[in-house]
Amino acid sequence: MNIVLLGAGNLATSLALRVKEVGLNIVQIYSRTVSSAVELSSVIGCEGVSSIDDIIEGADIYIVAISDRAHVEVLPKIKFNNSLVVHTSGSIDMETLSAYSNRYGVLYPLQTFTKGRLVDFSEIPICIEASDRDSFNSIERISNILSNDVRRVSSKQRRELHLSAVYVCNFVNYLYGVAEEFMSKSSQDFDILRPLIQETASKIMSISPKEAQTGPAVRFDTNIIDMHLNRLEGEKEQQEIYKILSEAIYNRYN
Amino acid sequence: MNIVLLGAGNLATSLALRVKEVGLNIVQIYSRTVSSAVELSSVIGCEGVSSIDDIIEGADIYIVAISDRAHVEVLPKIKFNNSLVVHTSGSIDMETLSAYSNRYGVLYPLQTFTKGRLVDFSEIPICIEASDRDSFNSIERISNILSNDVRRVSSKQRRELHLSAVYVCNFVNYLYGVAEEFMSKSSQDFDILRPLIQETASKIMSISPKEAQTGPAVRFDTNIIDMHLNRLEGEKEQQEIYKILSEAIYNRYN
Predict the structure, then answer these.
(1) Of A47, A126, A187, B70, which alpha carbon lies 20 to 30 A from B152's?
(2) pTM recorded for the entire structure
(3) Which residues of B touch A241 (CB under 8 A)?
(4) Cβ contacts of A186 on chain B, cutoff 8 Å
(5) Which one, of A193, A39, A38, lies nearest residue B171 by Cα?
(6) Chain-chain contact of A112 with B200 (C-beta, under 8 angstroms)
(7) Closest CB to B168 among A153, A166, A176
(8) Which tens digits make up the pLDDT trace of B6-65?
């Protein structure tokens, strides 16, 4: 099975490394950025191209791992000749691919990818759907080789999943960053927070977030809340974030 | 060394179990709630009392692990006779204890505690300070038996630490809870998010939150942001939280 990979960003890189690791065959990698195409393709050991015209025709599957915004720029220019076209995005409806091929689907690995950081791909949930039974079978076969956790997820469910991922990953990481700044400004090491961060994440593997909720807001401890809001007096944005999240916690759990 | 423990909540329970585990000697546990005092003291194998008048005098150290709000109600009524009095709170200034004894300090274990959930106490950072050198040495000696990570932290630094802990624990857990609700409402299992939650927490053990930031807000991907804000149209509180956090991420990283 010949795979063409479109994209060389964080997700494309992690995916390509995993595809190579499990012995699947990437024949070509496309990226608009020449250096990215060259770099990733040389690691994988395949052709790297940065011109759409050089993308080969007739591959068995085209895996689209470019940014969501690039879909409408890049995909209409590619001759897919009704090969199987699969995108990897959390937020794009599968049916958008019907404009480019009559065989299409989604292979969405739910994880945050950073170049240079290896993740255990076998544990990453892969959410799949397809235009037809044959395409579904192909995508499922590949996904089962890549990961032990493959799930059928509709476009509608995938949108909710992606929204949830923004909350538990992007928003959470932002809060880590704010804390890092508080610590740095008070001459303390961020690493002192690491056991707490780890335990907060681990706790909800066995108990629900509702049971796990602690802190001044759920206790409605106005002394501490007011003290913190006072402390944040000079940082309006943080004061607002502190306030809205504390109110939301109180509203949810009381 | 005879220890009297005041409190039988989440923190007091975890602390008492660790104190017993390392072979230190709790002689008495006080809790306003009779059942809590009985329950925890029977596990630890010491006297449990629920009346302030029954608290023994002349212990070597009194560890205050009651809620912040209970400090001013409970502590003035106890005869400490200038024994060492140590509180365990993230947000209360050490000097407040000077009203009750002339030997005092802080032993603040930075972790989120839930009854019935065991944590590896040896890895919990314990933040200590004291009124005088002798008291500091006593608190440090005990802390070093309880944990491998003992740090001198001033009251001012501890306040920043506690504020940071609210961000990386309480606020983060709240976001987990919102995601759980999105998932449940779209008939999906919350556990699909667990590898992402774990990786988001693990990532910042080796790279800074700044480098780790991904997602639509940092990319200023207005298509996705607008799509999510539209999706949240019927949930004003979440729409506001999504908006303020996305703007904050954009402001911070661009």
Answers:
(1) B70
(2) 0.93
(3) 244-245, 248
(4) 156-157, 160-161
(5) A193
(6) yes
(7) A176
(8) 999 999 999 999 999 999 999 999 999 999 999 999 999 999 999 999 999 999 999 999
